[in-house]
Amino acid sequence: MLIAAAGACSLLFSVGTAAADPSEEQGIDSELSQAIDDYIAAESELNAAEERQDEIKDEIVRTKEDIERLTVQVNEFAVAAYLNGGIPSAVSVLATGDPASAVDGLTTVSYLGDQSGQHLQDLVDAKEDLAAEEVALEDEVIAAENALADMKAARDAAARAVAAEGGGTSAGPTGSDAPAPEPAPRNTDGSFPYESCSVDDPTTGGCITPRMDHALTQAILVGFDRYTKCYRSAEDGGEHPRGRACDFSAAVGGFHGYAVGGDKAYGDALAGWFVEYGSELGVKYVIWFNMIWEPALGGWREYPGCGGTSPSCDHTDHVHVSMV
C-alpha cells in the first residue's frame, strides 16, 4: 500500500507545477485556532477519563468477586477449625460473632500461620484494592466532569470567534462515497501525539507532520488525487508553515478559480470525506466554499473569506485541511 501511495504521489505532484498557490488564502484567527485546540485537548481528556472509568469499574467488579470467593474460603476454614477444635486461633476468630462478620475484625497474627493464612491475606489485600479503586473512580468522575466543562467553554469560545467573523450555521458536505481511511496513530490514552514538521512534503519539497502525511496518503489512496500543495513559508502564517495543512485543488492540474460542475462535486466529496473521518485522521478544521467545519462547533459555519473577491481567499477553488 505504501508503494502504491508513493507512486500516486509521484504522479500527482509532477503535473500542474505552473499553477499558482493559493497565496491569498487567509487562515483562521488566533482566537478561533486556540479555541479549537482547547476543545480538542478537553475532548481527549474526557475520552481518556471515561476510558479509565470503564477500566476501573471492571476492576471493581473483579475485586468484589474475589472478595466474595475469599470470604467463603476463609469462613469455611474457620468453621471447620472451630468444629474440630484443632486450631485455637480459629476460636478467637469466631469470638467476634458469626464467621461472615468475623472476617472484618481479623487481627490475630497467629491466624496468618494457619492453613488459611494466605487466603486471609489475599482477602485483606483485595479489600484494600477495592477501597483504592473506588477512590480512583471518584477521581476519574471528577476529571471527566472538569474535562466536559472545559469542552463546553472551548466550544462557546469557538462559537463566539466565528460569530465575530459574521459566520452563522451553514449546510456543508458531511460525507462521501469514498472508502474509510486507516486511522492515524494515537497515544495509549486516545489523544494524538505532538508532531513536528519532520516528514518530506511530496507536494513542495518542504516538510509536513507525520499525521498530515498520513491524511494526504489516505486521501490519495481512496481516490482524491488531484493537484495538492501543503507546505508554505513562514511569512504566509497559519498552519502551512507548521506542516499541519494542505490545500487540495478542486480542479485537475492546479488551482484554476471558482469551482463549478464536476470540480465543485469533487471538492464537496473531499471536504465531506475529511469531515466524516475527522476523528480518525485527526482533522482540526476544514475550509471549503466560504464555509468552515471544526469539531468544537459540530457542524459547518459560514466563513466570509474575502467576500467573493478571490477564489483562493474564499476557498472556492480548493479544500483547506488542517490537522491537530
TrEMBL record:
UniProt cross-references to InterPro entries, sorted A to Z: ARB_07466-like_C
Residue ranges that the Swiss-Prot or TrEMBL entry lists as coiled coil: 32-73, 120-154
Signal peptide positions on this chain: 1-19
Region (Disordered): 164-193
Membrane spanning stretches: none
Keyword annotations from UniProtKB, A to Z: Coiled coil, Signal
One Pfam family cited in the UniProt record for this chain: VldE
Residues annotated as domain ARB-07466-like C-terminal: 205-309
Source organism superkingdom: Bacteria
Keyword Cell inner membrane included in the entry's annotation: no
Gene3D superfamilies xref list: 6.10.250.3150
Keyword Ubl conjugation listed: no
Protein name per Swiss-Prot or TrEMBL: ARB-07466-like C-terminal domain-containing protein
